[in-house]
Amino acid sequence: MAIEAGDFRTGLTLIVDGDPWVVLDFQHVKPGKGAAILKTKMKNLKTGSTQERNFNANTKFEQAVVERKTAQYSYESDNTYYFMDMETYETYELSADQIGFNKYFLVDSMGVTLNFFDGLLLDISVPDKVELVVAETTPGVKGAPTTQTKDAVTNTGLTLRVPQFIEEGETILVTSADGKYSSRA
After folding, report:
1. Which of 8, 27, 28, 133 is the most buried (most CB within 10 A)?
2. Which are the contacts of 168, defined by CB distance < 8 A and separation ≥ 6?
3. Which domains does the chain have, with CATH numbers?
4. What is the distance between the alpha carbons of residues 177 and 108, in angstroms, rounded to a whole number?
C-alpha cells in the first residue's frame, strides 16, 4: 500500500531506500514559494540510526510490514541478549547495539515484543512502564521540599532522578520511553 508523505504519523513504519524506517516525529512546512515540505525525524529499524530527512509532501512510500511476536527475556551473556518464544520455545538473540537503551528495562522473565521485518529480527519493544528496584541512592533529606529530587541507580544500572522519600531497596515504576521516575510500584 502506497503512503504519501503528507499522510505521515508518528510510529508509521515505511520503506525508504530499501530499508524499514519508523517515523519518530514530523512537521509540515509550507514555504512562501513552492510545494509543502515534510520535515521528519526517522529511525532506521535495521541499523538503529536516527536521521532528519525532508520530503516533498506528495512523495509516495511503501508501508513496511513489521511482524511482532511476544517472547520472554531469558538472560544476557557477552553483550548478547536471549529471548524465548513461549509458544514454540524457540530462542532469539540480539546484540547490545540492537537492544540499545532498552537494556535498562530488561528484568528476568519479563514479557517483551520482538519486531521482525522480512523474517529478520530487528529489535524489541518493552512495556511502557517497568518495575525496577533502587539499588543505590543517598538518604533522603528530612524537611526537603517534595519536589526536590536526588540521583538513584536501579538494579539494571539505569541512573535517574527520584524524589527524596525513595530509599534503597524500594521498587519504583520507570517510564521506558525516557527512563524517568513515574511512581512507587
Report:
1. 8
2. 134, 135, 136, 137
3. 2-63 (2.30.30.30), 67-125 (2.40.50.140), 129-184 (2.40.50.140)
4. 19
Q: Give me the amino acid identity at 152.
A: A
From first CA to last CA, the distance across the chain in angstroms is 43
pLDDT one-digit tens code per residue, 19-56: 898 888 888 888 777 778 889 999 888 877 889 998 88
| Alpha-carbon dihedral 28, 21, 126, 71, rounded to 10 degrees | 150
3-state secondary structure (DSSP) of residue 166: coil
**DSSP letters along 29-53, please?**
E--SSSS-EEEEEEEETTT--EEEE
Alpha carbons 8 and 12: distance in angstroms, whole number: 7
Q: What is the pLDDT of residues 129-158, one digit of tens each?
A: 999 999 999 988 887 777 889 999 999 999
C-alpha cell at 82: 536471549
Residue 8, classed as helix, strand or coil, is coil
What are phi and psi for residue 91, nearest 5 degrees?
-100, 135
